Amino acid sequence: MRFDQYRSYHVWDVVIALSVTCVAVEIPLRLVLGDVPALRLIALEGAITLILCLDVFVQWYRPESGRHPATSRSSRVAPARVVWFSIDLLAAIPLRLFLSSTILPLVQLAKLARVAQRMQQWRHHAVHHANILRLVFFAYWLLLTAHWLACGWLALNGNTTLTDQVVVSGFRRYLRALYWSITTLATVGYGDLTPTTDAQIVFTMVVMLLGVAIYGYVIGNVASLLANIDLAKRHYLEHMERLGAFMHYRNIPLILQRRLRDYYAYLWENRLGYDEVSILADLPESLRTEVALFLRRDFIEHAPLFKGASHELVREMALQLHPVVFTPGDYIVRAGQRGRHMYFISRGTVEVLAPDGHTVLATLTDSDEFPFFGEHALLFSQPRNASIRAVDYCDLYTLDKDAFDHVLAQYPDFAAEIKEEAEKRNPHPTTA
Ligand code: CMP
Questions:
Q1: pLDDT tens, residue by residue, 46-86
Q2: Does residue 386 have its Cβ closer than 6 Å to ligand 1?
Q3: Which among 97, 105, 104 has a CA at the least distance from the CA of 46?
Q4: What is d(CA 11, CA 296) in angstroms, rounded to the nearest whole number?
């Protein structure tokens, strides 16, 4: 399904949720209050009926969520689809217009199952605000329940007369019934509206029990919901606390402590603490390629080295590159050591130091035409011919020797460019 199609389905779902909510509010209210003039909004009724009728077709032809449209419609109709179809059809018949004095139209409330289903999907798809949505949906169901209980109270001819008033109009009776249901549900129970008949007493007890259960749910969940709203930040802070305790316990020198803290702060600010490699490793091959391409596209698109590179090479590089971060002053490679990796600079500046450790041979940055180093040792199977030191925070990508050999064998043009630059940097390499 295309993105804009997803969007239109989302908008349509919101319209359906609003329409069904109107129906869920109106049917029980009409039933207990009789024909209430204020609710005779014929145009709205007609629009809702039309929308619900249209929804029968929309839902039937809609590709199932999470499935490819091509595979979602098979010749055999799944039983679940038939059940959903019946619910949609039932809700589309405007029973409430013709049979408003019987309880029959209440069956149309089954359509609320659709709303619940969509809410669950929205929560799964909402990457950033899933917890806030959970709170909003909880408030929705709570208000709807309070409304139904108020209607139940009215149906049982519950007392809606406050001490010094004689209430006559339907709206005011409803308002007081709602007041009763909310005070009882919230376990406040002022006792100004009290049950008198046996049925009312039983009903009140059930609502009180429900109130206690909801109260428990709220206390138990809302605190954890609020705590989880910024889960990534909480993880980061926990991690920093553990790190602090560890450094204190092992007497790590203060300067090193500062560097460690700075390193994690840098990671947090730039990557929100997410470990790209482990997230990618969890994904299936096809998704991993797409996500890796997306994550590294900035680097690959902007590095002059990859200008005009074939799509295959870009894909290969996106998959094989691994991100690493170095802090200012870190030695990334040391002269004389054996090399297993080559590095591409995504962000930052490094200094190339001669084997004496002092002479700066060159400075490489992400905006260079050839923003890489460490190729020499891999190309010529020689020890590193220079040391590389990070000048500031450096976001690098590494390519290990196997991947390097593979890429060079597969893409001779790219290999030639790297070799040419390697020879320019070190004119007389002794081949192993
Ligand atoms: P390698 O020998 O694997 O490790 C050290 C790296 O420093 C080397 O590969 C080159 O990539 C890089 N290097 C060495 N000399 C220079 C130079 N003069 N200019 C830029 N980079 C260099």
A1: 888 899 899 988 888 877 654 544 444 555 667 778 888 88
A2: yes
A3: 97
A4: 33
